[in-house]
Amino acid sequence: MKSAVLFVVCGALLAFQKPFRQYPGVEYDDFPLPPDWNEKTEFVFARMMYPPAPGVRGGFRSGWGGDWTHGGTMWTQDYPRADRHFSAAVRRLTRIHIRSVEQPVNLDDGDDVYNYPFLYAVQPGRGRLTDEQAAKLRDYLLRGGFFMTDDYWGPQDRAVFEEWMHRVFPDRPIVELDDRDSIFHTIYDLDDRYQVPGARYMQTGVTWKCEGCPAQWFGIYDDKGRVMVAASFNSDIGDSWEWADDPHYMEKFSALGIRIGVNYIIYSMSH
Predict the structure, then answer these.
(1) Which phi-psi region, left, alpha or beta, contains residue 75 (left: φ > 0; alpha: ψ -120 to 50)?
(2) Which domains does the chain have, with CATH numbers?
(3) Cα separation of 253 and 196, whole Å?
(4) Cβ proximity of 71 and 77 under 8 Å
(5) Could you read off the pLDDT of 134-160 as tens digits, one per residue?
């Protein structure tokens, strides 16, 4: 039995999961709960909480004290609007019984992360894991977990992300994912991938956050050729989920962002 399947079985042991929790975000602090928020489901979208990188600017809620374990810092970018829009899309487009609300996951919370086969983090260029968190993430991934990360732009963010991943996997390279890799063909054939812009596109018409920054798709493989880490460089998949219901945000960007996310979830549960 594949390790990812073992994760699904372990994830079904709901009694060991942390209860649902909601924190204030850098953009939202009063987001209504859907009526079925406490439904027991087979899958939960897990958003990774992380401490900010030393000296990082921005990404703090105005007036917030900066305690990342209570929200209000960069790990909450797009949260929870993006997570809930994407979960709703997964319900419509697949047969996965996914919960309507996300779960913030703190790597410091004992073994909680092992309940989730799929883990997402936004703006890794603004965060830095502790040694203990890096070791926990490495163990989680080697046991069959999957980590999607998104919305980091330009050489500075890339350097921070690569330093982060080097501490998780000092012996594994970050490589550009090949169009032929099955991660791009689990449900949708995604050979034609283009830059997915953030919300500012609705005002500027510009898809990039830094000039000369094309979209790239990076990953880290395990010894059997399974993608453990999938990183969207110079794209903002999270915003494509967050603004999927806004007529000013072009449908083609949300369509690609949602398809990428669906492919990654199916891949995480089948490889």
Answers:
(1) alpha
(2) 3-270 (3.40.50.12140)
(3) 6
(4) no
(5) 999 999 999 999 999 999 999 999 999
| Angle at 84 (CA atoms; ends 78, 90), nearest 5 degrees | 120
Could you report the per-residue pLDDT of 59-104, keeping only the tens digit for each? 566 555 568 999 999 999 999 999 999 999 999 999 999 999 999 9
How many angstroms separate the CA atoms of 244 and 78, rounded? 12
Q: Which residues pair with 176 in a beta bridge?
A: 218
Q: CA 151, CA 75: separation in Å to the nearest integer?
A: 11
Residue 10: Cβ within 10 Å count = 16
How far is it, in rounded angstroms, from Cα 176 to Cα 214?
13
pTM (2 d.p.): 0.92
Determine how β-strand 175-176 pairs with β-strand 216-221.
Answer: antiparallel
φ/ψ of 122, rounded to 5, equals -100, 150
Q: Which residues pair with 148 in a beta bridge?
A: 120, 230
The DSSP string of the chain is --HHHHHHHHHT-GGGSPPP-----SS-S-PPPPTTTT---SB--EEEE-PBPTT--S-S-TT----GGGS-SGGGTTTTHHHHHHHHHHHHHSS--B-SS-EEEETTSTTGGGG-SEEEEE-GGGB---HHHHHHHHHHHHTT-EEEEEEE-HHHHHHHHHHHHHHH-TTS--EEPPTTSGGGSSSS---S--PPP-TTHHHH----SSTT---EEEEEE-TTS-EEEEEEET--HHHHHHTTT-TTS-HHHHHHHHHHHHHHHHHHHH-
